[in-house]
Amino acid sequence: MFADLSSVYSQSGGKGAIEAARMAIEDFGASAGAPVGFVFADPHNNAKNGAAIARKWYAEGVDVIADVPNSAVALAVQQVSREAKRIVLFSSPASDDLTGPSCSPYSVHWTYDTYAAAHGTAQAIINAGGDSWFFITADYAFGDAMERDASDVIRSEGGMVLGGARAPLGTMDFSRYLLQAKNSQATVVGLAVAGQDMINALRQASEFSIVQDGQRLAGLLVSIADVNSLGLQIAQGLRMTSAYYWDQNDATRRWAARFFAKTKRMPTMVQAGVYGALAHYLKAVQAVGGADAEAVMAKMRETPINDFMTHDGRLRIDGRVVRDMYLFEAKTPAESKYPWDYLKLLQTIPADEAFRPLGEGGCPLVSER
Fold it and tell me: Given 112, 121, 144, 344, which residue has the most CB atoms within 10 angstroms?
């Protein structure tokens, strides 16, 4: 398993994602037919590091790699996975190129992607009158995909993209980018960044009075960990698209309570997705009687996904898991009644609307069917 243990994505994934993986192994590993070994590494958000570690692990007999906390690293690991004919389960990375031109018969994009995040959050803001945008974008594969997908939504609805700025991964000071956004006079400042970068950008946007002076903020990938770090005084009103929120129903709360007992934090959708992906994989290993990648992938595709966060989900040939997504809004401090009571549900987005249609992504596996 790959996890960001020290950088911008350590709160949304990190040690919590490792704990979620351990929980899945505890729950389903015994039924897999052989002891389940578990190793993890931090590729430090470097694609070359990630590819080298993946190549070494697969050569040593690792059957599956989970999570991978960065789209550039994920695309590199996906290529190694394809060459090795071994499985990789993505939860953290967002780029929908993973199921587009770069798709692989051995990869699963489990939790969400830039298409779903953009079409959920951006569409809601456009519907509320946000028709001109300026983007502050992470300067790597995730940001490229997120800005592209959000821009497609904006333009398809008759809106305009007035400009943008590229921010390196791990940016501490967003002031010059926020000043550009303010001077653009765009209705909406779209933040195509994530993790600690999102926290820094939102906190500094408050200091720049972006919202107070009439612009809207669109955090295109906000997690509950970000809201917890910011506090509702800053985060209130932010809209976000997610595959999971701990307080949705009895099933989500039960799993979150188990996770909280181990970590003292409520899980993000990425952490919940790590558990869900590994659980589905281990059930498939049990069903086929071994870890042969071709047989396991076939079983994962033919088996409906039903767990605490997914109802009647399915794994498509392009590697995309299709499930309902949810549009949430961060509560005001007065609306929050207990710890981690941060979000209210605005809309359930049906699976076939949430994700890109199968034939539109450019995945070669689709045309081979």
Answer: 112
Opening angle at CA 342, ends 264 and 196, nearest 5: 70
Sign of the C-alpha dihedral computed for residues 238, 243, 244 and 248 taken in this order: positive
| Dihedral angle over CA of 70, 74, 75, 81, nearest 10 | 170
Q: Output the six-digit token pair for 70.
A: 């960065």
pLDDT confidence tier of residue 247, bands split at 50, 70 and 90: very high
Q: At residue 319, what are phi and psi to the nearest 5 degrees?
A: 95, -5
User: What is the rounded CA–CA span in Å between residue 233 and residue 121?
Assistant: 20
In this structure, the dihedral spanned by the alpha carbons of residues 92, 53, 80 and 314, taken in order and rounded to 10 degrees, is: -30
* Tens of pLDDT, residues 87-135: 999 999 999 999 999 999 999 999 999 999 999 999 999 999 999 999 9
Strands 87-90 and 64-67: parallel
DSSP string, 2-47: B--SSSTTTTTSHHHHHHHHHHHHHHHGGGGSS------B--TT-H
Contact 121, 242 (CB under 8 A): no
Secondary structure (3-state) at 65: strand
Tokens 């497609």, located at residue: 152
Q: What angle do CA 206, 164, 73 make, to 5 degrees?
A: 95
- pTM for this entry: 0.96
pLDDT tens, residue by residue, 228-238: 999 999 999 99
Alpha carbon distance 161, 159 (integer Å): 7
Give the residue ranges of DSSP H helices in the chain: 14-28, 47-59, 71-84, 114-117, 123-127, 141-156, 175-184, 196-207, 224-230, 232-235, 250-263, 269-288, 293-302, 351-354, 364-367
DSSP state of 265: S
What lies within 8 Å, CB to CB, of 34 at 6+ separation is none
Q: Which residues contact 61 (CB under 8 A, 6 or more apart)?
A: none
Residue 201 corresponds to which amino acid? A
- Could you give the CA distance from residue 86 to residue 64 in angstroms, rounded to a whole number? 6
216 — phi, psi (to 5°)?
Answer: -105, 150
